[in-house]
Design goal:
- By secondary structure, this protein is α+β, with helices and mostly antiparallel strands.
- The protein has one domain.
- About 30% of the residues lie in helices and about 25% in strands.
- Helix 2 runs parallel beside helix 3.
- The protein is globular.
- The termini are far apart.
């Protein structure tokens, strides 16, 4: 497997497009739930102290869905349950949200990854304190939870000198990061050993037909109430 990662781009986050629904919504929700059933803490964890941030994140996401897609989602009050019930008409399900962990509510209704970082007031550094991550490459929640941004990105060359300040700023203001990876499996006999530099020179004849392009968009926004 060879991976080429072009430079990343940062731009102001467009709040109206924070969460988007596609025609694969039901299938993606089912896939993500299956991953959680299989891997548990490798894809979803919340450390002590992150409760308020997780709850606020859930409220922000659900309020966005209610405002953007009112034909699919609604919120009703149940006196019997003493809780709001989130109605998902796409899945034909109802969720008593106060009886569920906020991240599980997101898992059941939003086919997106979420990571919660909180500032450690003793060190001044942001730490990964909670999240649900189903589409990571080369890492999982269990391997990064509790670490600060520098520790998380330690494998990246020159991170501290060239990227650390930008990343600390990225998690504290509304921005959107876009990155593209080109991934391929080399199968040609004349490609041993694998030479990613050949692709950089434009010699694409070495690549198999399994080449794919993966673009990720990572919005970042501070939660108003639980922001440190």
């Amino acid at each position: 497997m060879v991976s080429l990662t072009p430079p990343q781009a940062f731009k102001k986050m467009e709040p109206d497009w924070w969460l988007e629904l596609e025609n694969t919504y039901s299938a993606r929700i089912a896939q993500r739930k299956s991953l959680y059933d299989l891997h548990g803490g490798d894809v979803l964890q919340a450390l002590p102290g992150s409760e308020a941030a997780c709850n606020e994140l859930m409220e922000m996401a659900l309020q966005f869905l209610l405002a953007r897609y009112p034909q699919y989602f609604s919120l009703v009050r149940s006196v019997e349950e003493d809780s709001e019930i989130f109605v998902n008409r796409i899945l034909d399900r109802q969720f008593v949200i106060r009886k569920m962990h906020p991240l599980v509510v997101l898992l059941e209704n939003v086919p997106e990854d979420f990571a919660v970082t909180l500032k450690n007031h003793e060190t001044g550094m942001y730490e990964f304190r909670a999240g649900i991550i189903c589409s990571s490459l080369g890492w999982n929640v269990a391997s990064k939870i509790g670490k600060n941004l520098q520790e998380i990105h330690q494998p990246i060359p020159d991170y501290k000198g060239k990227m650390a300040m930008s990343m600390d700023r990225f998690v504290s203001i509304p921005l959107s990061r876009e990155a593209t990876d080109i991934r391929a499996t080399v199968t040609s006999p004349r490609c041993r050993p694998m030479r990613p530099s050949s692709a950089a020179r434009g010699d694409w004849s070495i690549w198999s037909h399994s080449t794919c392009r993966r673009t990720t968009r990572t919005p970042s926004s501070a939660t108003p109430s639980s922001r440190p």
